[in-house]
What we know:
Elements: E1 6-12, E2 29-30, E3 33-34, H1 35-45, E4 51-56, H2 61-70, E5 77-82, H3 87-97, E6 107-112, H4 120-129, E7 134-139, E8 146-147, E9 153-155, E10 163-172, H5 173-184, H6 194-202, E11 207-210, H7 221-233, H8 235-238
Parallel strand pairs: 1-4, 1-6, 4-5, 7-11
Antiparallel strand pairs: 2-3, 6-10, 7-10, 8-9
Helix pairs in contact: 3-5, 5-6
Amino acid sequence: MDKKKCTAIVLSAGQGKRMGTAIQKQYIELSGKPIIFYTLDAFQKSAIIDDIVLVVGEGQENWVRDEIIEKYQLTKVRSIIPGGKERYDSVWAGLRGLHALKEQPEYVFIHDGARMFVDEQILTRGYENVEKFGVAGMPSKDTVKLVDEDQFAVNTPPRKLIWAVQTPQIFKADLIENAYAKLMEEVPDNITDDAMVVEQMMKVPVKLYEGSYENIKITTPEDLEIAKVFLAKRKEKYHK
């Protein structure tokens, strides 16, 4: 079977307020390179991904182009576009940015720029599952309890049914664009990932595929410490 054209939309417009640093989390350096570099480099080297649309904070386009894309020769990044206030605004901007590509993708991989440990194994599993509308995730290691507004436990779902959702979330391009087009006609509320948009707007079920327990989203200072450990394990891969 011929490989379908795949484009990654990488979201790097978040403010990262929980990190508590002056610099946005995706530009914090680990081993001398910004977090977003490691994320983009995984897609750059991937045999699955053909090109990348990078969504950044408004006004950061030129700096990102000079200090990251050109500096590290990330040639698959076809465009750098400004994002919006909320995540769904940035995804919508990225989806509209697809139309500027010379060739339209069959599949779209939507990925958080702060998940720097995405790798070829995850991307391959995602590509193999995309016909089932794949969303990366991992089974929960913890027991999860649902609580009421007063934080009293009201239910304990079976752990085998609980997955922590990750990215990339992968969809047929027309499906995800149509879903977001419908979403943007409404007043989005409590939308936390792309699967929710497909589920709610298109009434299409979403299948999870296995990501990795290392595929963490760097959000807090504690995550940075974990990332240093993971990066040390992969040092040979990144610093040949």
